[in-house]
């Protein structure tokens, strides 16, 4: 008997590209401008308009955008940034780039987003200093150890994990109370809304990412959004080798980077922004197909959408495998029938270089670690068909049943 697997090759993710994107990229190649041209400007305007930001500054990756936001927030040697260990590693690496120290707090067990009660507690204790502050520091910095300089608590960096907004009201309240800058890692949440507000423009700056597995893509690419005029100017300078708008090509007002987005990528992104509602709608449909088929499967817990999430932007479809079923075994069994799946996320504090540098051991953040052990990302994209979802769910049910 032939099965669907004889015909389809299901990938983990897939971009959604049409003739409009292909034509847009070709038209750039036929022009004189492959960089620093009109497409980046048009892309920035379209994206800013979509999320309702005063400014959008395109960069060559989400990581680059987050790095520049960390610089703008004045994070320097030893400065502390409260963030989540249940994320993609880039969200805390950008703090390390400036020799700051990520202060991890555990996450909400339901959404997997940063636990806002812990954010408030950590901010209070870290601002008070002394022994109260100690328990929030990475083990290697506790008890007055002096080999790592201890700076100031400066920022909170929440991540809207899997396209679901973090509880921003509480985070903003804590930030106001202690004078902290809020940088939103919105790399997984373009188009998501929190109590009706677009993610990315709630804090002082937000960053979206456009790697090919994201909801919309530019190949590689990212964009910073902000309502702050001075920050926007700074981002434009920092991404362009530290040139100010009045600088000539070989004049550099500050230390900068080459984090520019090229014109081919921007042209692709411009079409994708215009299609964004369609792209998000297709992803929501695929998520609904999964939910229909998996909701009553005992061993599988489907994603929970919080009441404060007024629009989910489906980035990935991550289920939890309930014991006695074992996530790793489920992955292996799915692999055997050609269905890829991924453990998602692998906690940041247990990555080898975080353990080595900051002294983290398993047990430091129990909820994050638990989620890291049971979470399974299934194949997901806006171009997946209902038949493909059927096939994946059918095999998954067999494996856990
Ligand atoms: C994708 C992603 C990034 C980084 O994006 P790149 O464009 O790959 O650099 C940062 N944070 C999170 C949470 C992401 O998912």
Characterize the structure shown.
- The chain has helices at 19-29, 38-51, 62-72, 90-97, 116-128, 130-134, 168-178, 229-239, 263-274, 276-294, 327-336, 352-358, 366-374, 386-400; strands spanning 55-59, 80-83, 101-104, 153-157, 181-185, 193-194, 197-198, 205-209, 222-226, 300-301, 309-311, 317-321, 342-343, 375-378.
- Helices cover 39% and strands 13% of the residues.
- By secondary structure, the protein is α/β, with parallel strands linked by helices.
- A seven-stranded mixed sheet has the order 1-9-8-5-4-2-3, sandwiched between helices. Strands 10-12-14-13 form a four-stranded antiparallel sheet. The chain has a three-stranded antiparallel sheet with strand order 7-6-11, with no helix packed on it.
- The chain is globular and about 65 Å long.
- Strand 4, helix 7 and strand 5 form a beta-alpha-beta unit.
- Pyridoxal-5'-phosphate binds at residues 61-63, 87-88, 90-91, 159, 185, 187-188, 209, 211, 222.
- The site of pyridoxal-5'-phosphate has 14 residues, from helix 3 and helix 4.
From the N-terminal CA to the C-terminal CA, the straight-line distance is: 22 Å
Tell how many strands the DSSP assignment holds.
Answer: 14
List the secondary-structure elements in sequence, H or E.
HHEHEHEHHEHEEEEEHHHEEEHEHHEH
Query: Looking at the structure, what is the overall shape?
Result: globular
């Amino acid at each position: 008997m032939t099965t669907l697997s004889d015909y389809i090759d299901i990938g983990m993710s897939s971009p959604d590209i049409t003739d409009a994107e292909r034509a847009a990229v070709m038209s750039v190649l036929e022009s004189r401008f492959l960089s620093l041209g009109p497409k980046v400007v048009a892309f920035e305007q379209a994206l800013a308009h979509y999320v309702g930001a005063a400014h959008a500054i395109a960069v060559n990756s989400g990581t680059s955008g987050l790095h520049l936001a960390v610089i703008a927030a004045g994070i320097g040697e030893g400065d502390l940034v409260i963030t989540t260990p249940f994320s993609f590693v880039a969200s805390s690496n950008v703090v390390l780039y400036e020799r700051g120290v990520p202060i991890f707090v555990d996450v909400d067990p339901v959404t997997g987003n940063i636990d806002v009660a812990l954010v408030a507690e950590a901010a209070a204790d870290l601002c008070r200093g002394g022994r109260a502050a100690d328990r929030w520091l990475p083990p290697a910095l506790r008890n007055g150890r002096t080999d790592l300089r201890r700076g100031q608590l400066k920022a909170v960096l929440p991540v809207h994990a899997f396209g679901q907004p973090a509880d921003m009201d509480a985070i903003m309240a804590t930030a106001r109370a202690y004078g902290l800058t809020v940088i939103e890692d919105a790399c997984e949440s373009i188009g998501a809304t929190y109590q009706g507000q677009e993610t990315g423009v709630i804090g002082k700056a937000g960053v979206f990412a456009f790697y090919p597995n994201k909801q919309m893509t530019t190949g590689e690419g990212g964009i910073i959004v902000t309502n702050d005029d001075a920050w926007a100017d700074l981002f434009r300078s920092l991404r362009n080798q530290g040139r100010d708008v009045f600088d000539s090509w070989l004049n550099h007002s500050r230390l900068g980077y080459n984090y520019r987005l090229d014109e081919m990528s921007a042209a692709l992104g411009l079409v994708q922004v215009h299609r964004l509602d369609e792209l998000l709608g297709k992803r929501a449909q695929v998520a609904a197909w999964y939910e229909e088929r998996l909701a009553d499967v005992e061993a599988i817990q489907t994603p929970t959408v919080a009441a404060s999430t007024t629009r989910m932007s489906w980035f990935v479809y991550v289920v939890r495998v309930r014991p006695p079923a074992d996530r790793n075994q489920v992955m292996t069994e799915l692999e055997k029938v050609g269905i890829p799946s991924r453990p998602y996320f692998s906690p940041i504090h247990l990555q080898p270089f975080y353990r080595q540098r900051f002294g983290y051991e398993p047990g430091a953040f129990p909820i994050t670690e638990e989620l890291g052990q049971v979470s399974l990302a299934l194949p997901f994209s806006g171009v997946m068909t209902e038949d493909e979802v059927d096939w994946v769910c059918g095999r998954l049910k067999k494996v856990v049943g």
